[in-house]
């Protein structure tokens, strides 16, 4: 049947095939045939038999083998597939694949033969090594998403039941996103097969919120069986499953209200139907990442800590806006300094420092839970409204009865993480008691009180250590530590002794436990006055006999507070002798003195002080004064506030020493105060507030012997010496011509204010009015000073004075405290007549003698004197220089001034001037002598004009001894004022200067000077030309002196102004002695030059 | 600078109780004549409104300052953000002018009633977002109390004018607990802004009434 079937079947397939191909491309068919032909050709030897046996397995239990049919085989060909093993199993089948049970390791011969043609048999060697293990394609059972956490959950079955053995499986999961299926993530996941079907889960957290893009998931596997020696391959990818979110019409931003760790990266996305324009986090704009549709995302890297209300992320849409808030913060820090203590052993307080701020507040703030390990109790701490930066947190926990050891764990948690801190405490060692309250004081007696206070807490099982602070006014603070048994009812009392009677004390208290942890705070202060006690000593007593010696005055001092022990109300005084006793009782307190009339007997006086409790022991003193030797009064000066008295030890003095003192100016009996000193001391520093500087006090030292006092020393002294307040009153007893006798008086003790050390006496010459002005400064030489250190001296004679002279006398007293005021007086000494006469006569005589001698000498030497001091003066009439009359203008013999007579110029030559503006130029004045034209042509090659003319007044020729080659004659020139405004040629350089100087003042006269002079003056000595020039040039003096032979020098063409004898003003009138260089100007005396040169400098 | 165009539609969380509003508007205004002079309460309400007006911009600035950028950026404004549960104060002058006393007072009354409830909501939101900012919370609380005070004053005016007082209603409706932090911030912004606008409008309303009913 098979045989029939297959041939029938094959054509039908062929037909089908042909039918398909008829519609397909002919070329493709052709190439396929060519390929098939080639393949057939290669496998020509197998062509007739089945070939290419390939086996795979997907579960290691069965092998799927397939082979290629021989070329002649039709579709329905029957094959015999035999495995040559022990059983030699054969399978008959009409297809080219077979599923066989897995073969044992090793080679197996496989025979495949076509049953219809016995010859076509193929043999294959089949080994497990040639088998490929290709697992079945896995399938995702379930793909779900948790959008809030952006997590994908994948679930699949490993179909492990088909595998006989344990195998490792590697799963590969791929995640694609967007519609374009971009690969986002490819992860491997390892499991093992355990022979059963197992469902596996795998989760993945997406960076991008899942709402914003579609996500696809696919899976494949690879079975890694170590026992299988064949080839292992990956399975095919499972069909993809996807997750997407159906948006509503509103744009939305994801994730919403997320809490993340500072510094992490986060992606925000916006699901929108409309175009998103921009996105920003806080105020920072971010680039958009475009997703499917109009959805966009932004990536934020390394986010910084948010402010309290979070960081805003805002997406701007066409006509809308949407956003979200992200809270970036830190996980809770480990609680630091966790410490638990109790105030009262009823309640435990644990406090801690939360450490670094998390940056999260409100519902995201850290929550704390305090857990006690032994009892299992816990309390929670959540203070939502506390800002994150509050420094300390604390929690209260009720104590468990009878539990002393506590193991506390503090858990801290916030959305980003958790932390914890642990402490183990023995709570009885961590007691910080409350502040003691209701402190009360009760008297026991005058030196002890009971303190009671309230301290809440059940301290029944422990001892308290309390510190009592005792403060006495004006005294050092005292602290006493006491240990008290703790009680449950919170009331404590304790006795405090060793106090002083009638003293104000301030108490306060603080407590701790014996196992010290912390002192409580101090309680409030409580002030208390202790009760009175009898005075501990009798008052310090002294007695004085009244001045008439009939009454005894008894003095006593008030008791010091430390001895009074209460308020002293009164004193009792009694005087008792062998015969009688007198007493005065109830002398009220402020009075510290009593007077009793006594016979001069030997009495013992006793004084008793009384307070409300009782009387003091009596203090006794004998009335007897032991007679003393003659006691000398000594002097002493104190230092500062007191005075130091010293004495030698006297073994006779058995009881004590008494020093009494009084103001020396007071009358007897004088007593300011006294002081008792023990008998073994030899000095006492007497100090009293009553002491004043500059006041003299008397001190008396008494020694006590056999209940009687003997005066030992008497001292006057000052606490401090001051300068006298008054000057000694002095008078002039006697005055002579050369001496004055001065006498002065003592200064009273009160005004002396110190021990007198001497006087200073000054005297000087001086009238009353002038001397007043000057003081008596030391160092003035005209003041004479006498220092009188002998204070008993009361007079002074001042000798060696001048007669009939006014003297200024000054006297002042001084102590060690300084100089007193001065008293001054003016005294005139008497006249000394003989001396005066001599003083007048001698100078007169000397003057007369000198006069006579001088007269004689002068007379004898009168000729010489006349020659020396009074020579003959020559007559100026004889000076040749002034002989004008002999010159050309003879006609006017005595003429010396300018005369405006007409004169005809003999030669005028005009040159075209290059000057740009009119200038006031000196008129060239030339002598009418015919040399003028000659000279100009000879000596001046330059192009210039010489204006020659005859002066209106004929110049007077001066005889020139030198025979000057240029002119031969010196001339005195008179200037025609009217002809000054004449153009004149000048050398180039002067023309250059002109525009500058031309604007200034133009002198009316210009005296032309030879060019050589110009060289000297203008080139060599420009500075000189610039400054002032004397009218008389020094050079001209000696060069042109008529007598000087040098004037004949060829070089000396310098202007000659005349002789030194000539009158200065005349030099104006005398021209330079050159007639041929009218343009030269530098050396000449010229205002023009003066002004022209100056700006050029 | 951050002019937010558009309207946050997802803020439209609380549907306006439209029928109720209409009902209050259509209430008959034909009540009997006022037994007492309305000048007193009007003057009192006017003073309070003037006082409130001085603080509204401070409240808005303080509020924005605590919300972070871009809210706290200088010049921030998003006029298009609205809340459906809060009637906007903006009204065309013509309509406003045409309103009679009863309508005018009714609208103000309704707005301030809504504002007191919203200010309470914003205060709660901010105690979550800004718990450590007592200044902001105090200002929000003070604004709410003043709005309530103004409501009382307006009721007194309406009584004096013989107008019926609209019943108190729940403008917020279902409690919007699920709002995101961003929505809360926007909501608070709209409320504090509208509080200012409504206060400005109330000052004008009352000034008009004051002129109409002189003492």
Automatic annotation (TrEMBL), chain A:
Main location: membrane
GO molecular function, one term: ciliary neurotrophic factor receptor binding
Transmembrane feature ranges: 834-859
Keywords recorded for this protein, A-Z: Cell membrane, Disulfide bond, Glycoprotein, Membrane, Phosphoprotein, Receptor, Repeat, Signal, Transmembrane, Transmembrane helix
Keyword DNA repair: no
PROSITE patterns: FN3 (PS50853), HEMATOPO_REC_L_F2 (PS01353)
Chain intervals with Polar residues compositional bias: 1086-1097
Residue ranges of every copy of the Fibronectin type-III domain listed in the record: 331-434, 435-534, 538-629
GO cellular component: external side of plasma membrane; receptor complex
Membership in a protein family: Belongs to the type I cytokine receptor family. Type 2 subfamily.
Protein name: Leukemia inhibitory factor receptor
From TrEMBL, chain B:
Gene Ontology cellular-component annotations: extracellular space
GO molecular function: ciliary neurotrophic factor receptor binding; cytokine activity; leukemia inhibitory factor receptor binding
Any one GO BP annotation for this protein: cell surface receptor signaling pathway
Subcellular location: Secreted
Name of the protein this chain belongs to: Cardiotrophin-2
Similarity annotation: Belongs to the IL-6 superfamily.
InterPro entries assigned to the protein according to its UniProt record, in alphabetical order: 4_helix_cytokine-like_core, PRF/CT
Entries under Gene3D superfamilies matching the protein: 1.20.1250.10
UniProt key word Secreted: yes
Keyword Glycoprotein: yes
